[in-house]
Amino acid sequence: MDELTGELAAKAGIDSAVAEKTIGIILGFLRSEGPSDKVQALIDKIPGAEAAIASANNTSGFFGLMGGGLMAVGTRLMGLGLGISQIQDIARELFRFGRDKIGADQMGEIISGTPGLSQFATV
User: Fold this and answer.
1) Using only C-alpha atoms, what is the Rg of the chain?
2) Burial classification of residue 7, based on how many CB atoms lie within 10 Å of its CB (0-12 exposed, 13-18 middle, 19 or more buried)
3) Dihedral in degrees, nearest 10, Cα atoms 77, 24, 18, 73
4) Tens of pLDDT along the chain (123 residues)?
5) Where in the chain are the domains?
6) Residue 67 region, left (φ>0) first, then alpha (ψ -120 to 50), else beta?
7) Cα torsion at 96, 79, 85, 52 (round to 10°)?
8) Which class in CATH covers the domain with range 2-120?
9) Which residues contact 6 (CB under 8 A, 6 or more apart)?
10) pTM of the entire predicted model
C-alpha cells in the first residue's frame, strides 16, 4: 500500500493520508460495483488494501448516507479536497498500478465491468 500511496500522492500533489483514503474509497466502489472476482484479485495484490477499504467505508453523516455509485464516489473524493483533474490522475495511476499487478486483461475487465468507469480510464 505504501508504494501505491506514495505514487498517488506524488502524481496528484496530495498528502499521503488523503491518497490512502482515496484508494480505499475507489477500491470499495470497485468491490461493490465491479466484477467481484477480478476486483478481489486486485485487492489481494495490494497489501493493506482491505484496511484502507474498511477505513474509507467507516464514514458517517452526509457521506455515509449517500449510498453507492460513481457520483457518490466523486462527491466523497471532492469532499477530501480533490479536484476533477486530480481524481482523473489518481484513477489513471490506480488503473496503471492495477494493470501491473493483475495484468491488462483483468484490469480491462474491471473497468469495462464497472458502470460508468470506462469514461475515466485509459488502460
Assistant:
1) 13
2) middle
3) 0
4) 888 999 889 988 899 999 999 999 999 999 999 999 999 999 999 999 999 999 988 755 444 445 568 888 999 999 999 999 888 888 889 999 999 999 999 999 999 999 888 776 654
5) 2-120
6) left
7) -10
8) mainly alpha
9) 16, 19
10) 0.88
